[in-house]
Amino acid sequence: PPRVTGVERTIIAGAPDVRHISTSLVERQNLTMRMQMRRFTRLTNGFSKKVENLKAAVALHFAHYNFVRLHKSLRITPAMAAGISDRLWTLQELVEETSR
């Protein structure tokens, strides 16, 4: 696998405190995605032959992550924390929503 040889910080939006700029949140999300979707596992041959299949897999992963899965630190789903949903969804409800 490639190795990081340097980091360059570029502010794209807003005025963040440069001392607190970090990639740790994004890297943690990338790890979660790689652990839960074989298509993103490093150095393997798990892949989608069609980009539509990849898009569907990513959408399903994030819908499950945000609406169905309880997060230990939040004790609720991210959708509930953001005020998008007022309840925990079941996997069946998620599947029914995707088939509409």
Keywords:
43% helix, 4 helices, mainly alpha, single chain
Description of the structure:
The chain has 100 residues and is mostly helical. The protein has one domain. It has helices at residues 24-36, 51-68, 78-81, 91-98. The termini are far apart. The mean pLDDT is 88.
Task: Summarize this entry quickly.
The chain is mostly helical and 100 residues long. Helices cover 43% and strands 0% of the residues.
Largest sheet: none
Provide the number of structural domains: 1
β-strand percent reads: under 5%
Question: Overall 3D geometry?
Answer: globular
Q: Round the mean pLDDT to the nearest integer and report it.
A: 88
Q: Low-confidence runs (pLDDT<50, min 5 residues)? A: none
Terminal Cα span: 40 Å
How many helices in DSSP terms? Answer: 4
Overall strand count: 0
- List SSEs in N-to-C order: HHHH
Q: Over all CA atoms, what is the radius of gyration?
A: 17 Å
Instruction: Tell me roughly what share of residues is in helical segments.
Output: 40-55%
Supply the helix-strand structural class: mainly alpha
Topology readout:
Blueprint lengths: L23 H13 L14 H18 L9 H4 L9 H8 L2
